[in-house]
Design a protein that fits this description.
This protein is an alpha+beta fold. Helix content is about 40%, strand content about 10%. The protein contains twelve helices and four strands. The protein has a four-stranded antiparallel sheet, with helices on one face. A hairpin with a 2-residue loop joins β1 and β2. α2 packs across α6 and α4 packs parallel to α9. The radius of gyration is 28 Å and the shape is elongated. The model has no long low-confidence stretch (mean pLDDT about 80).
């Protein structure tokens, strides 16, 4: 059976659903998603619409494969609570840096919990669902199948968690970019690369400059003001490995199930360990 989620957010989305849904129906829904019976789906903010192929069942008088229309609406977080959440997240450097670099921190749900909110589904009350099938249960296997397809999409777009709760990725990052750390990080993320220029020499050629005024050698070397005895080192504002982290956990070229960022961190750690006596 196909693995529907490689990332923690997709897996937690499924675990949240399993905590308050019938496991048998979710299992049949997983089978529907795995067998390609979810023909199409569309996610528009916090609303999901889909078409799912049903099953032929002569016992119920179904002799031709039916197609059912599914509608799922996830309860959005209101604007007031979103403002509180963004203000709280903006005060945490680890949250701001990761979210601006297209990562969702694995403890982001804790930030919402501290405010009495939930980013992940918390109960049946978070969902308003309907299916055109005759099954009276909710969720039925068709709705459950769409749940698993949405969970798989979280691997490619973790910010879908925020969108399903009523806030787009662009709006979230725009608000976070207004924080002190966000301003610094945004400057680096949007910095344009300086194009390379060919040069005829490795060194800057010297040019002769005509000096009109007389220069005192002592004043030239000592200057009119004394230099400070100590110079304070300024720590760089940039974040380490920013080029790698900008790609996110699963960039388009990365086909493995493991996180690209975690793999590179492990590689760099091995290099540092192997060459610790050199560096």
């Amino acid at each position: 059976m196909a693995q529907f989620s490689r990332t923690w957010w997709g897996k937690r989305f499924i675990l949240a659903l399993e905590s308050f849904s019938d496991s048998a129906r979710l299992g049949r829904g997983r089978s529907y998603a795995n067998n390609g019976k979810v023909l199409n789906y569309k996610i528009d903010q916090n609303e999901i619409t889909a078409t799912v192929r049903g099953s032929v069942n002569p016992y119920f008088g179904v002799y031709k494969e039916p197609k059912y229309r599914i509608n799922i609406e996830i309860k959005p977080i209101d604007k007031t609570n979103w403002s509180k959440a963004i203000k709280y997240i903006s005060s945490k450097a680890s949250f701001v840096s990761k979210l601006l670099m297209n990562e969702v921190p694995d403890n982001v749900e804790e930030a919402f919990a501290d405010l009495g909110l939930h980013l992940l589904p918390h109960s049946k009350k978070d969902f308003k669902t309907s299916c055109s099938c005759p099954d009276y249960a909710n969720p039925c296997k068709h709705i459950a199948g769409v749940y698993y397809v949405v969970a798989s999409q979280l691997d490619h777009n973790p910010f879908l968690l925020f969108e399903l709760r009523g806030l787009s990725k662009e709006a979230l990052q725009a608000e976070l970019a207004k924080s002190p750390l966000g301003k610094v990080l945004s400057t680096e993320l949007t910095a344009k690369e300086i194009p390379l220029e060919s040069s005829a020499s490795y060194y800057t050629p010297l040019e002769k400059v005509q000096i009109t005024e007389k220069i005192n050698p002592r004043e030239f070397w000592l200057g009119t003001k004394r230099l400070p005895q100590t110079v304070e080192a300024v720590s760089p504002a940039s974040l380490p490995a920013i080029l790698i982290k900008k790609q996110g956990d699963f960039p388009p070229f990365w086909k493995k199930d493991s996180s690209f960022i975690e793999t590179m961190e492990e590689l760099y750690q091995r290099v540092r360990t192997k060459n610790k006596e050199v560096i």
